[in-house]
Amino acid sequence: MRFPRASASELLDVVDRYVTPDPKEHGRHLRLLHGNFARDDESERDLFVQSVRAAARKITDEELEILLEGDWRSRLTASWLIGFDRRDHFRDVLADLLLTSQFCFAGQGHCFALARFGTDEDAEYLAVYLDRYLRRPDCEYDQHWAISALLHIDSLTGSEHATRFLVPGGLWDQWVEALPRPSSPSRFMDGLCGFAADSEADGGTGSG
After folding, report:
1. Residue whose C-alpha is closest to residue 190's, from 115, 127, 129
2. How buried is residue 128: exposed, middle or buried, by Cβ count under 10 Å (0-12/13-18/19+)?
């Protein structure tokens, strides 16, 4: 990592405030994991999205850097907060973390953030990831999240970055066919980014 290493007490403090902010809940990270919050009923989902928006506005860059030094829970949460607030100066860091894929699940957040930034540069980072990991059927990591993020960016920019991966017999088909449970690429990232965009329009009030 390129950040100064935080002390254990600093990390625990930031985790308590942003990853597990409500002692009555299991943790914000569990509702962000797999986009689980999107399956909540509308009122509950809206309250959660508002709380994420408020936290994304409140957290400092230094606190985000501390979370990005932590485990998958901290990195996942940090990436979602970065994506909600579109702090695209974290682009290179998140792309590096995604490509390294040190921790399970954290890459979901990295893909979400890159999708939220929504530029050709972000698409290129996602393509580099897919070029590497679609050639690894032994690594079922965050390929579904990366292709969905890439499709989302293509829809925003009118580009076709995802096309070469999705041609019949291409890298996506080859990777999926080697999995125990093959599945098609999905555009679920459109919906997740839509929740974040709607919270911007609504003002994003709520508890951080």
Report:
1. 115
2. middle
Structure confidence at residue 4 (pLDDT): 47
169: Cβ contacts below 8 Å, ≥ 6 apart? none
Distances (CA, A) of 15 to 30, 119, 125, 191: 13, 30, 28, 27
- The answer to whether the predicted template modeling score (pTM) of the entire model surpasses 0.90 is yes
Farthest-apart Cα atoms in the chain, separation: 51
pLDDT for residue 103 is more than 60: yes
Q: What is the pLDDT of residues 11-62, one digit of tens each?
A: 889 999 999 987 666 799 999 999 999 999 999 999 999 999 999 999 999 9
The packing angle between helices 188-202 and 106-117, to 10°, is 60
161-165, Cβ contacts within 8 angstroms, sequence gap of 24 or more: 161/120, 161/123, 161/124, 161/126, 161/127, 165/127, 165/130, 165/134
